[in-house]
Amino acid sequence: MKKLCLLIIILNFSSPIFGEIKNHAPSVPLEEETLEIIYINKKDSQPYAQATLSIKKNLQLEKTYYQLIQKGKGNYDQFKDVQWTMTSHMMGDHSSLLILESTTHIYDNDHAQLAQFKKGYDYQKSEITFQMLNNRGNVLQEKIFPIKGPTCDDVTLVHFLRAFVADRNKEQYKKFYLLTNEPKLYQVIIKNRGKEILNLPIGRINAMKIQLMADLGPLTEIVAQFVPPTFVWYSDQYPYDWLQYEGLESGFGSANIKAYLVKRK
Fold it and tell me: How crowded is residue 213: how many other Cβ atoms within 10 Å of its Cβ?
């Protein structure tokens, strides 16, 4: 869910670093580009935030290293009228793309740090380390989560899902894991909701719509009736570019937002 920054965890089982993970998704390569994004609070239709996301890549031997940097201003979860910087590092090849780490720094408008969230992915140990730090850089909370299968976080969500959209008709690409800043690890079900035409500042676009639902077993459909639904739209042709998001910003109890693409260059 927020803030639309990173990517796809893709698990390549020819390497021993992936341990016993059984599920993986195909790679959808990223190109260098800059996205401008607007966020709206659905409760009152008022502006909520704005952000710019830049994707850079560097080829080294047979690997491609990606850096994603997002800079935003406005509201971020419980932080109001702030600025933030998200930085993500990934490594990929022709068939896989791995998140190495993602970090979120939140600042006031005088650029004094208010908080920091860090997520490190260790594929040898099959675990993710989550840390929340205060304005002095001291660790307030640390928690270790297992990597059970394809996993992303609130920073990486919408780009991560591009690969699942590409293979949406295959059974193994209908679930994934999401790590939030609560922090909690959820298994998420992907529902295909067909095609729509979106009217965005970048134009009128044919889009695919998917719905995300936390997998709560027999309670999934019941709980979904009491929680704002989460939808994500992608272009209906390769490379399945992200277009729009509607749903909770970062987890249960957070703001219900709408985020959409304003410019791509």
Answer: 18
For domain 16-264, the question of CATH label 3.30.1490 is answered with no
DSSP state of 156: T
Using DSSP bridges, classify how beta strands 230-235 and 203-214 pair: parallel, antiparallel or unpaired: antiparallel
165-213 pLDDT, tens digit each: 877 777 777 888 998 888 999 999 999 999 999 999 999 999 999 999 9
Helix (H, G, I), strand (E, B) or coil at 37: strand
Q: Residue ranges per domain, the chain?
A: 16-264
Buried/exposed code over 123-137 (b: 16+ C-beta within 10 A; e: otherwise): beeeebebbbbeeee
Distance CA 108, CA 82 (A): 5
DSSP string covering 206-258: EEEEEEEEE--GGGHHHHHTTS--EEEEEESSTT--EEEEEEESSSTTS-EEE
The contacts of residue 155 (CB under 8 Å, 6+ apart) are 3, 5, 6, 86, 88, 102, 104, 119
- CA dihedral (99, 208, 178, 87) positive or negative: positive
Q: What is the pTM of this model?
A: 0.85
Q: Which two tokens stand for residue 89?
A: 């590092």
CA dist 16 and 14 (Å) reads 7
Q: Hey, what are 33's tokens?
A: 């580009």
Q: Are 76 and 254 in contact (CB under 8 A)?
A: no
- Is the Cβ–Cβ distance between 33 and 53 less than 8 Å? no
Report yes or no: 208 and 226 within 8 Å, Cβ to Cβ.
no
